[in-house]
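Supplementary notes for students who missed Thursday's class. We covered one full example, reproduced here. Read the sequence, then the structure, then the short commentary at the end.
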Amino acid sequence: LTVFAPTNRAFQDAGLGTLAAVNAFPEAELVRILTYHILPTRAFSPLLTSGDVATFQGGKITVAVGGAGVTVKGTGNTVVATITQPDVVATNAVLHVVDKVLLP
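Structure (token representation):
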């Protein structure tokens, strides 16, 4: 898997910075948002290319690769998220830390 993992600050900015806020959020919507951050294949940063990519949730995110780095944008976002730490390797996934929560 590939996971675009938002920072704690990104969750705070999205209104999900406390356990109480997460618990108050509709569970189905939370699952929809979290699975929107996952790609069904492992993609290290050198393999990322500009364009739309299908997520585990069934939606699409837009990846943009440029001289300033890699950004991703959910269809519900007004601004792009920047990958601040690429290629964090996990047992069954690669994580790319992003500075925004991606919204479907």
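Commentary. The radius of gyration is 13 Å. Residues 27-35 form the longest helix (9 residues). If anything here is unclear, bring it to office hours.
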